[in-house]
UniProtKB/TrEMBL annotation:
Keyword presence, DNA-binding: yes
Any one Gene Ontology BP term: phosphorelay signal transduction system
Keyword Phosphoprotein: yes
Pfam families hit by this protein: GerE, Response_reg
Matching PANTHER family: TWO-COMPONENT RESPONSE REGULATOR (PTHR43214)
Domain named Response regulatory: residues: 7-123
Annotated protein name in UniProt: DNA-binding response regulator
Entries under CDD domains matching the protein: LuxR_C_like, REC_NarL-like
An example molecular function term from Gene Ontology annotations: DNA binding
Residue span, HTH luxR-type domain: 150-215
Entry coiled-coil feature ranges: none
Length: 219
């Protein structure tokens, strides 16, 4: 096994998902799947034999909680990076992932290639989260992990950026926004770029959902 090999333990009680990921990672030249288990307990046993670079847990499994398993794993092997893969993108689950210093939280609806790329990035020290997670929480400046916003993510935006976001969320074109605010289309582009960077939301539909949830516009 060379120095660049990324070792992975998968834990998911859905055999279809587990086997699909194991096969897909096996097709990559830089991954070795140490174990693909149906429970968090089995994942910990596998880690005892060989601590992985990355441990990927499904959240909704019978038996030992994935979060408790992740906490145990991080306590014993601090260098192991922990990720969660789930059909549930809920604030409560995300906060529990925060508590165990997760470096990734991905929706199962993500394309397989996105999940594989995320595992590789996390192994390299980055953090990777689905857009729906990023809408609720923020990634710290180093990109190493997820942190909870102090109050609301709208506090990251200036008053002018909030104005621009409100109009964009209503579906207005950038030129129309420029006319409404008395600024140039280029300035609107500048504000829009800053908004997306600050919120880490790079899709107009996701921006609209965020604006509605934060009460900036009415649905």
């Amino acid at each position: 096994m060379n120095a660049r090999t990324i070792t992975v333990i998968l834990a998911d009680d859905h055999a279809l998902v587990r086997d699909m990921l194991r096969e897909r990672l096996g097709d990559e030249g830089d991954f070795v799947v140490i174990a693909a288990t149906a429970s968090a307990e089995e994942a910990l046993k596998a880690a005892e034999a060989e601590p992985p670079t990355v441990a990927l847990f499904d959240i909704d499994m019978p038996g030992l909680s994935a979060f408790d398993a992740a906490r145990t794993l991080k306590a014993k092997w601090p260098k192991t990076r922990v990720m969660f893969l789930s059909a549930f993108i809920q604030d409560g689950y995300i906060r529990r992932a925060l508590e165990v210093e997760a470096s990734g939280y991905l929706a199962k609806s993500e394309p397989t290639e996105t999940i594989v790329a995320a595992i590789r990035a996390v192994a390299g020290g980055a953090a990777r989260f689905s857009a729906a997670v990023g809408e609720r929480f923020v990634v710290e400046a180093s990109g190493a992990r997820l942190i909870e916003a102090p109050h609301t993510r709208t506090e990251l935006l200036t008053p002018r950026e909030l104005d621009v976001l409100s109009y964009l969320a209503l579906g207005k074109a950038k030129r129309e926004v420029a006319n409404l605010l008395g600024i140039s289309p280029k300035t609107v582009d500048h504000h829009a770029s800053h908004i997306m960077d600050k919120l880490d939301i790079h899709d107009r539909v996701a921006l609209a959902r965020f604006a509605i949830r934060e009460g900036l516009v009415k649905p």
